Amino acid sequence: MSSRPADSRRPDAAVIGILQNAGLINNSEETKFEPLTGGVSSDIWKVETKEQTFCFKQALPQLKVEAAWFAPVERNRFEVAWYRLADSIVPGSVPRVLLHDNDAKLFAMEYLPEDNHALWKRELQAGHAEPAQAAEVGRLLCAIHSGTAGSVAVAATFPRTDIFQAIRLEPYLEAAAERHQDLAPELCELSRRTARTRLAMIHGDVSPKNILIGPKGPVFLDAECACVGDPAFDLAFCLNHFMLKCLWNKDVQPAYIVCFQAMASAYLAAVDWEAADHLEARAASLLPGLFLARVDGKSPVEYVTEDDDKDRVRRCARKLLKAPPSRLADVIAAWKRELTL
């Protein structure tokens, strides 16, 4: 999480009161509040007191993007639930939750300093694409899926499906279908299939911008899309970023592709709740839809700006959507061919 430019604003008095009542703040006048960037769906603040530094996050009903994009603020509660369950399965893989106020749709968590917790997105942008890191992200993600797969208790913790629909399926796959009417049957079927597949607790936004590389391994952030769903979505969502980043730092294309392969291999090797090839087939067929959505959905990636690059994504994605692959190797092979044209 990075700092915004100097800002004199303070959180609402009601929010400060919640933090004081929880014992996280003693004297608000001696406390430093700093708004953080890095997300479009919540207000996030870094809070420094004499005793400690922490963050708090409050969900917004309307996301900070150009398109009209609304989402239930109750997602804050499910994000906290995801953190707590993930930490019980893979300790240290998430920040520690310090406070949750369901009425205010707010929670506080430990602050992980940038000097020893590098944002993975920045590392990848700089060309530091390490296959071992990608493999470890895949392994930890699969462990969280495995630890919640088929659990009645976990399903009861995440009873809602509308939030994932509102902040993932509609703005990504269904919005792309609006732009590509000839592909609407394929894209809408991917959305419907993903919505009805409820196998494990998923994060819903496994992206390098939401992963820190810490001294003890990857740390997952921003689980606002958390629900019980298809674990293949989490895998495909993250693999999508390695493909897109081939257009961001073209000198590092081969390393991004190796990271794609390393994460996919590590994840699939650990799948134990279903046949790995079944999950891979869902991820492989879903990935082109997510790929297309990042140029023609409601949340386009900010670094694919050239028309030629956008057309590369469209050409590759459209071909794969018309002839769905069943193996992730086929997806990355198709993208490699496109990159050489």
Highest CATH level, the class of the largest domain: Alpha Beta
Helix content: 40-55%
What is the approximate shape?
globular
Q: Low-confidence spans: pLDDT under 50, at least 5 residues? A: 1-8, 63-69
Structure report:
By secondary structure, the chain is α+β, with helices and mostly antiparallel strands. Helix 9 packs antiparallel against helix 12 and helix 11 packs antiparallel against helix 12 (328-339). Strand 3 (42-48) and strand 4 form a beta hairpin. The radius of gyration is 20 Å and the shape is globular. Helix content is 49%, strand content 14%. The strands form 3 sheets. A 6-stranded antiparallel β-sheet has the order 1-2-3-4-6-5, with helices on both faces. The protein has a 3-stranded antiparallel β-sheet with strand order 7-9-10. The chain has a two-stranded antiparallel ribbon with strand order 8-11. The protein has 2 domains: 2-110, Phosphorylase Kinase, domain 1; 118-339, Aminoglycoside 3'-phosphotransferase, Chain: A, domain 2. The model is unreliable at 1-8 and 63-69 (pLDDT under 50).
What key phrases describe this protein's structure?
341 residues, alpha+beta, Phosphorylase Kinase, domain 1, Aminoglycoside 3'-phosphotransferase, Chain: A, domain 2, 2 domains, six-stranded antiparallel β-sheet, three-stranded antiparallel β-sheet, 11 strands, 49% helix, disordered N terminus
